[in-house]
Amino acid sequence: MKTIGIMIRKVNKTGREIITNPDREELKKQIKTFHRKLKKNDKVITYFSIESDTNRGGKYHSHLLIRYNNEINLYNGLSRFIGGNFWEERKNGLDPIKSCKGRYGEVDTHFIYDENGFKSYMNKNGEMETPLI
User: Fold this and answer.
1) Who wins on pLDDT, 16 or 37?
2) Crossing angle between the packed helical segments 24-39 and 71-82, to the nearest 10 degrees
3) How far is CA 61 from the centre of its chain?
4) pLDDT tops 80 at residue 2
5) Is this model's pTM higher than 0.85 or not?
């Protein structure tokens, strides 16, 4: 299985294009639904944490660590999750970061060299959820 680190900043839009940010519980529910949809076409394990944005009261972002086999299924699922379809790649030092901005948020994916280190970062405030299998 391959491993990837993901940061997601999600928004909700109503029928009249009013933008709101999901609260912690709603974001948790959306991530569980995202995992369930990915699991239909691939064997995936998802670790995640939800953090409060600093200097942006009441807004949250999430960090995910996903183990997967089917990269196409993963990126298609992420695109559907945020309502985007154009992925761009940029360099952060020597590491490529793939980004997608969509109607319902934005996603950055990172190659993970140290899985335990990334899990430790995700759990820095004791906020990491039990893995979704």
Assistant:
1) 37
2) 140
3) 8
4) yes
5) yes
Whether 57 has a pLDDT exceeding 70, the answer reads no
Per DSSP, the residues of 20-89 read E---HHHHHHHHHHHHHHHHTTS--EEEEEEEEPTTSTT-EEEEEEEEES-HHHHHHHHHHHHT---EEE
34 burial (CB, 10 Å; 0-12 / 13-18 / 19+) is buried
What's the pLDDT tens digit per position in 81-109? Answer: 999 989 999 887 778 899 999 999 999 99
Evaluate if residue 56 carries a pLDDT over 70: no
CA dihedral 49, 46, 88, 13 (to 10 degrees): -60
What is the Cα–Cα distance from 103 to 83, expressed in whole angstroms?
5
Q: Is 17 helix (H, G, I), strand (E, B) or coil?
A: coil
Cβ proximity of 46 and 77 under 8 Å:
no
Count of CB atoms within 10 A of residue 14's CB? 8
d(CA 6, CA 64): 5
Judge contact between 108 and 6, C-beta under 8 A. yes
